[in-house]
Fold each of these.
Amino acid sequence: MLAILLLWKLPVHADATLSINASIKENTEIVTRKLANQFLINKDDDLSVKLDILLKKANEYAGFNGSLLVGNSRGLLFYKQIGFADREHKIPLTDKHLFNAGSIAKELTTIAIMKLINEGKITYQDSVAKYLPNLASWSHKVTIKQLMSHTSGLPRIQWHTLIESEDVDEQIKNIQSLAFEPGQDFLYGNINVAIRASIVEAVTKIDFQTFLQQEVFSVADMQHSINPRTMTQHNKSMVYKLDLNAISGMTLFTTPYDLYKFELALWQETIVSAQSIKDALPGDILSGSINRAFFDFGGYSTNNEGKLISWQHDGSANPDHHALKFHDFENDLIIVLMSSDGSKSTLFDFKRSILPIVSGANGEIPLTWWFQHQMLKNGFNSAFNQLQQRVHKKSEFVPSESDINTLGYKLMKENNQLAARVFKLNQNLFPSSPNTYDSYAEVLIKLGRMSEAENMLKRGLSLAKEQKIAHLVKSLTRQYKQLNK
């Protein structure tokens, strides 16, 4: 089922696309490729028509079940849902249904702490013990800044079915030691987030849910968002299928429209100052990730002058809910995707396909969707042969390394032998890219083909060092050491 939302508070402006510069193509990984004509989206079509075609193809080819929102600072450009809120009972998905935002919810406690900092009520250097004195001795060593940056040394949550805030609070009380000295390493974990929510409660003297409603949800006009503390706070508007949990500061059930309004509120300075957000982005040196925000805002990119160009944050809630929030500041473009079909990579495929469409170029169906469609119709061998033929007819198809790599990882979830064939093709097509050797070696190890894997790792490591790609040097070195233990 396909549902369309008509919004009057933030109307769709007829000229809204004018501010979206064609230079999007220069700032994103846009793949130039020509598949068969039926896989192209005509650039002369209206924007909403093009995005509608892409949404339907995502559902048909990739099994996308979810919602797509495209907008800017002046209003919505497109907002539609496709699929079911409950497939078993044939309940169509609508704009009122709530998805689990996964890790995007971490922005709530991040913003809450930043707001208290801006108001002078706490400082980043304060210890956890200052506000939560009943915790073990480690709380005197861990600062709020280390909670914000996942450098506290606190362990990960021990997850179980139907976990609630009370369960997490009990785990925190039972922590007696840290994984490392605070500030010396990085361990991404939700215990940090839960403690941030508890500090907000200790400082404000109200529960975190009330704080959110008063200081965030109401301010941003988020009318369909809840942060449940107990399972009793769940409701029938939540999209099935979901491994339910209810944790203060961590569980966020919301709509793409509410996430869009939250994004607007962040940069319109109705919650905290925009400068304080920008100041919270640089500083990560311990995670090993590229362009990871120091605090919990996902990832970001800047130009040569250090100016913020874009940021994005993705989240997952097992087993099937995924979300992606992307903001291109230079071109005033916001994309929010939420789904319940179990495939996070589809959201990133979506985003890459949307960018050229919005800039006025031809839209194209992602390679992974096309391949999946062909494989379902004719089997892997036929689809793979078609892929090879199109690759070698370069006038017809110019491949992208990242697209083929994504396809390989999708296949790894089902069949390592098939994934290996795709990764090998990618390595042959892009022999100077260390990333292709890294991925190919990974699947060769899973297949037990250690000699071939070692060969790939050596060649990839040599290229990564030559090209000074630090994260790939680290990844390839780690795999090589594990292989030779």
Note: The two ends are 53 Å apart (CA to CA).
Amino acid sequence: MPGLSFAPDQSAALEGADALLAAAEWKEFRNPDFDAMRAALRQPVVFDGRNIYDPAVMALHGLEYFGIGRGVKVAGGGWLGHR
């Protein structure tokens, strides 16, 4: 497939990427070095399709986090979308 490339490990895959899309619940993806993740990404954006990361932890590490299907917490404690 044109434009598709493979990386030898997780760190190399993140280096210079525009964002991270987590699409697997594999054990090796559950506890990454979030600070290294933020430093490697061109934009600190994470789309979590499996909801394996805690939104509060992601915020503490300066990552913009989108838990697919979780909805978005808004000011005042309400939620947009599903919870």
Note: The mean pLDDT is 86.
